[in-house]
Amino acid sequence: MFDKGFYSLGLQHKWQMTGSERHWLIPLKRNTQNEIIRSLGRNDKLVIFRSNPRARKLFSDLSETMTARLVTRKIKGKDYQVLTSMIDPLRYPLKDIIGLYEHRWEIELGYRE
Questions:
Q1: Do the strands 44-50 and 65-75 form a parallel or antiparallel pair, or are they unpaired?
Q2: In the chain, what are the domain boundaries?
Q3: In this structure, what are the phi and psi dihedrals at residue 107, rounded to the nearest 5 degrees?
Protein backbone atom coordinates (compact mmCIF):
# COMPACT_ATOMS: atom_id res chain seq x y z
CA MET A 1 0.00 0.00 0.00
CA PHE A 2 1.46 3.29 -1.11
CA ASP A 3 0.62 6.86 -0.21
CA LYS A 4 -0.57 8.88 -3.21
CA GLY A 5 2.60 10.97 -2.91
CA PHE A 6 4.46 7.93 -4.23
CA TYR A 7 2.36 7.68 -7.41
CA SER A 8 4.65 6.66 -10.24
CA LEU A 9 3.86 4.18 -12.98
CA GLY A 10 7.54 3.29 -13.09
CA LEU A 11 7.71 2.67 -9.34
CA GLN A 12 4.51 0.63 -9.33
CA HIS A 13 5.72 -1.41 -12.31
CA LYS A 14 9.11 -2.05 -10.72
CA TRP A 15 7.49 -3.09 -7.42
CA GLN A 16 5.20 -5.53 -9.17
CA MET A 17 7.92 -7.05 -11.38
CA THR A 18 10.50 -7.68 -8.62
CA GLY A 19 8.74 -10.72 -7.20
CA SER A 20 5.90 -13.12 -7.69
CA GLU A 21 2.47 -12.15 -6.39
CA ARG A 22 3.59 -8.59 -5.57
CA HIS A 23 0.80 -6.10 -5.89
CA TRP A 24 0.23 -2.47 -5.08
CA LEU A 25 -2.69 -0.34 -3.92
CA ILE A 26 -2.56 3.44 -4.03
CA PRO A 27 -5.09 6.28 -3.73
CA LEU A 28 -5.75 7.95 -7.08
CA LYS A 29 -4.22 11.40 -7.38
CA ARG A 30 -6.45 14.19 -8.60
CA ASN A 31 -6.29 14.91 -12.34
CA THR A 32 -4.72 11.53 -13.12
CA GLN A 33 -5.74 10.67 -16.65
CA ASN A 34 -6.88 7.17 -17.47
CA GLU A 35 -9.03 5.39 -20.00
CA ILE A 36 -11.69 2.91 -18.90
CA ILE A 37 -11.30 -0.30 -20.88
CA ARG A 38 -13.80 -2.50 -19.03
CA SER A 39 -16.43 -2.11 -16.35
CA LEU A 40 -16.33 -4.83 -13.69
CA GLY A 41 -19.19 -3.25 -11.76
CA ARG A 42 -20.62 0.11 -10.75
CA ASN A 43 -17.58 1.10 -8.67
CA ASP A 44 -15.04 -1.23 -10.23
CA LYS A 45 -13.24 -0.56 -13.55
CA LEU A 46 -10.20 -1.72 -15.48
CA VAL A 47 -8.28 1.29 -16.77
CA ILE A 48 -5.21 2.06 -18.85
CA PHE A 49 -2.62 4.67 -17.93
CA ARG A 50 -0.10 6.02 -20.39
CA SER A 51 3.47 6.46 -19.26
CA ASN A 52 5.48 9.44 -20.40
CA PRO A 53 8.85 9.34 -22.19
CA ARG A 54 10.69 10.54 -19.07
CA ALA A 55 9.30 7.65 -16.99
CA ARG A 56 10.23 5.15 -19.73
CA LYS A 57 13.76 6.55 -19.76
CA LEU A 58 14.07 6.13 -15.97
CA PHE A 59 12.45 2.67 -16.01
CA SER A 60 13.67 1.01 -19.20
CA ASP A 61 11.26 -1.94 -18.99
CA LEU A 62 8.18 0.27 -18.51
CA SER A 63 5.77 0.00 -21.43
CA GLU A 64 3.76 2.84 -22.94
CA THR A 65 0.59 1.69 -21.18
CA MET A 66 -0.18 0.03 -17.89
CA THR A 67 -3.43 -1.64 -16.89
CA ALA A 68 -4.79 -1.19 -13.37
CA ARG A 69 -8.04 -1.57 -11.50
CA LEU A 70 -9.84 1.56 -10.34
CA VAL A 71 -12.11 1.07 -7.33
CA THR A 72 -14.41 3.78 -5.97
CA ARG A 73 -15.62 3.73 -2.37
CA LYS A 74 -17.91 6.22 -0.67
CA ILE A 75 -16.82 7.07 2.89
CA LYS A 76 -18.91 9.55 4.89
CA GLY A 77 -20.51 10.83 1.69
CA LYS A 78 -17.23 11.41 -0.16
CA ASP A 79 -15.94 9.29 -3.06
CA TYR A 80 -12.45 7.86 -2.68
CA GLN A 81 -10.71 6.12 -5.55
CA VAL A 82 -7.85 3.66 -5.35
CA LEU A 83 -5.76 1.99 -8.01
CA THR A 84 -4.46 -1.52 -7.70
CA SER A 85 -2.55 -4.09 -9.69
CA MET A 86 -5.00 -6.74 -8.44
CA ILE A 87 -6.97 -6.72 -11.69
CA ASP A 88 -8.58 -10.19 -11.59
CA PRO A 89 -12.04 -9.72 -10.00
CA LEU A 90 -12.47 -13.45 -9.32
CA ARG A 91 -9.17 -13.76 -7.51
CA TYR A 92 -9.38 -10.36 -5.83
CA PRO A 93 -13.05 -9.56 -5.05
CA LEU A 94 -14.06 -5.92 -4.75
CA LYS A 95 -14.94 -6.32 -1.06
CA ASP A 96 -11.39 -7.53 -0.32
CA ILE A 97 -9.81 -4.55 -2.06
CA ILE A 98 -12.15 -2.20 -0.20
CA GLY A 99 -11.17 -3.94 3.04
CA LEU A 100 -7.48 -3.34 2.29
CA TYR A 101 -8.15 0.32 1.59
CA GLU A 102 -10.16 0.72 4.80
CA HIS A 103 -7.28 -0.90 6.71
CA ARG A 104 -4.86 1.55 5.09
CA TRP A 105 -7.18 4.44 6.02
CA GLU A 106 -7.23 3.34 9.68
CA ILE A 107 -3.42 3.29 9.70
CA GLU A 108 -3.30 6.81 8.28
CA LEU A 109 -5.77 8.06 10.87
CA GLY A 110 -3.56 6.51 13.56
CA TYR A 111 -0.60 8.59 12.34
CA ARG A 112 -2.66 11.76 12.67
CA GLU A 113 -3.42 11.13 16.36
A1: antiparallel
A2: 4-112
A3: -65, -45
